[in-house]
Amino acid sequence: MRHHWLLVGACGWVLLILIFISKFINFSIRMPDDYVGRTVFGWAMPAVRRINLHSAQQPDKAASEPFIVSSVYPSILEPKDWQSVNEKRLELLSTVCRNSSFWNITHSTVHRFVLDRIFVCDKHKILFCQTPKVGNTQWKKVLLVLNGKFSKVETIPENLVHDHERNGLPRLSSMTDTEINRRLNSYFKFFIVRDPFERLISAFKDKFVKNPRFEPWYKHDIAPAIIWKYRKNHSDDGESVGLRFEDFVRYLGDEPGRHHLDRKFGDHVIHWLKYTDLCAPCDISYNVVGHHETLERDAPYILKAAGIANLVSYPNIPPGITQYNRTKVEHYFTGIGKRDVRHLYALYRGDFSLFGYPRPDFLLD
């Protein structure tokens, strides 16, 4: 009997010991629900973060590789360093420039006309090529501040920015060949681009519809000449109706038939010339190509890359104002024949390809 009770007592102690050990083990390996990564009993547990499914709709590609934001259809994903975006843009530019099938529509001689478009800031070794209808006014204000003319961009009068006789901004064309080559080979160089068709719409509105700078020659000289040659129905009085976007598209697409008109129009045609004709991007090695559609990110990056971020700031950009507007493009091209649109695209195909803008299938097909 005595042995029986000893056996029961021993079993009881064993049971108590097992219960105690079980509780100890459970306590030791209990981890926080959101993160597992501690060392338990000398074993390294793999670090696994649990992700809330509601906040994981998009994988974080930027963590493993730079994600390139399309300038036309911006993604919610952005790279940690905007430099990767610029590098991809320059890589694309170089690739298209080397493509022999694009050679005739992407290369341009670096002659006086191109050098006339490039503004110089010797103090900070910067060259800026002007491409109209992409926010050039603000960049010229930045250069005026850097040249010491003004202390802030906000204090610069608009009329002075466009008065190249008075604003004191030197152009590359005013220098000797030796001085030009030295600057092209050593200065920081940049320019801005925009979807080619949306840029044409902006030029048309600015010069032939609103004309805020009171440049009467666009409405009184250029518009009537285009209407006379390219309007299909002359029953309307050109002066009273004014230039239509359809007339403008037909004029631009008439390559090379319109060249005799362009010679009459002179430098006024810069507002709708191709980027290749304005800045020779395949023949001048630029450091940065900014995009109007992502200017909120491009402007700070350009200032930093040029080493002037602590000296001047780019004027505030209202959110969304520079983004591509497909609805507006569709509206302006409504009623314009496919043939005319295809001729227009053929003219600007080089600009679309060089800077990664997608072919506007919704207008062409």
UniProtKB/TrEMBL annotation:
One of its GO terms (biological process) is proteoglycan biosynthetic process. InterPro entries: Carb_sulfotrans_8-10 (IPR018011), Sulfotransferase (IPR005331). The keyword Transmembrane applies. Its EC number is 2.8.2.-. Keywords: Carbohydrate metabolism, Glycoprotein, Golgi apparatus, Membrane, Signal-anchor, Transferase, Transmembrane, Transmembrane helix. It is found in: Golgi apparatus membrane. GO terms for molecular function: sulfotransferase activity. It comes from the Eukaryota. The keyword Glycoprotein applies. One of its GO terms (cellular component) is Golgi membrane. Pfam families: Sulfotransfer_2. It is a single-pass type II membrane protein. The chain crosses the membrane at residues 6-25. Belongs to the sulfotransferase 2 family. This is Carbohydrate sulfotransferase. It comes from Triplophysa rosa (Cave loach).
